[in-house]
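Structure (tokenized):
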């Protein structure tokens, strides 16, 4: 386990402390769970961006192939 020094905005710290009292969880556990959750969100966003990018590439290539087929039909006529 790594030790980390962290500076928080006062409002974030105060809100977190109030929540921790109510949910009876240690600050360390809470921050670990929050970062794990946030990491998952960021990974999903990265995958989404990659899929959008790849989808655009596939779409562009599909349009090229479609035009080639259309040109072949013109050639047969």
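Design, position by position:
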């Amino acid at each position: 386990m790594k030790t980390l020094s962290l500076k928080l905005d006062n409002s974030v710290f105060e809100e977190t402390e109030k929540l921790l009292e109510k949910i009876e969880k240690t600050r360390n556990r809470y921050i670990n769970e929050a970062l794990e959750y946030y990491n998952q969100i960021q990974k999903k966003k990265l995958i989404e961006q990659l899929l959008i990018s790849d989808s655009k590439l596939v779409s562009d290539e599909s349009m090229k192939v479609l035009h080639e087929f259309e040109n072949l039909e013109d050639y047969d006529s």
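Reviewer-requested clarification: The longest helix spans residues 27-76. The CA atoms of residues 4 and 28 lie 10 Å apart.
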